[in-house]
Amino acid sequence: MTQKITLRLTFLALTGCLFLGCLGSVGCQTTINGQTLMSPHYMDDDIQYFPAGPEFPLSREANLIDRQQAEQAQHQQR
Predict the structure, then answer these.
(1) What gap in Å lies between CA 54 and CA 62, rounded to an integer?
(2) Quick one: pLDDT band at residue 73, thresholds 50, 70, 90?
(3) What is the pLDDT of residue 18?
(4) Please, what's the b/e burial string for 46-71 (b: 16 or more CB within 10 A of its CB; e: otherwise)?
(5) In this structure, are residues 27 and 39 in contact, taking their beta carbons and an 8 Å threshold?
(6) Cα–Cα distance between 44 and 22 in angstroms, integer?
(7) Cα–Cα nearest to 26, from 41, 36, 46
(8) HSE-CB of 28 using CA atoms within 13 angstroms
(9) What stretches of the chain show up as alpha helix (H) in DSSP?
(10) Going by C-beta distance under 8 Å and a sequence separation of 6 or more, which residues neighbour residue 45?
């Protein structure tokens, strides 16, 4: 009878260890209430870096408008 109980306890212990091992190795990133919670593998994720852009995002367009206004002012002076 004790061998039967020992076998059952060993089986339950191994099953529990296997379950905890599987639970620890599986993870996913979730969003709860607008907060992104990281996965257990967050140290392995690729880092995304977005360099800072210009302070004024339409600087080329603003320069073009300034040049056009300067050209118009030159044509009107002639």
Answers:
(1) 13
(2) very high
(3) 85
(4) eeeeeeeeeeeeeeeeeeeeeeeeee
(5) yes
(6) 19
(7) 41
(8) 3
(9) 2-25, 59-77
(10) 39
Which tokens in the block code for residue 62?
Answer: 């603003």
Q: What is the pLDDT of residues 7-66, one digit of tens each?
A: 888 999 989 888 777 666 665 666 678 777 776 666 676 777 888 877 888 988 999 999
Closest CA to 66 of 78, 74, 77: 74
Q: What pLDDT does 48 receive?
A: 79
Neighbours of 45 (CB within 10 A): 10
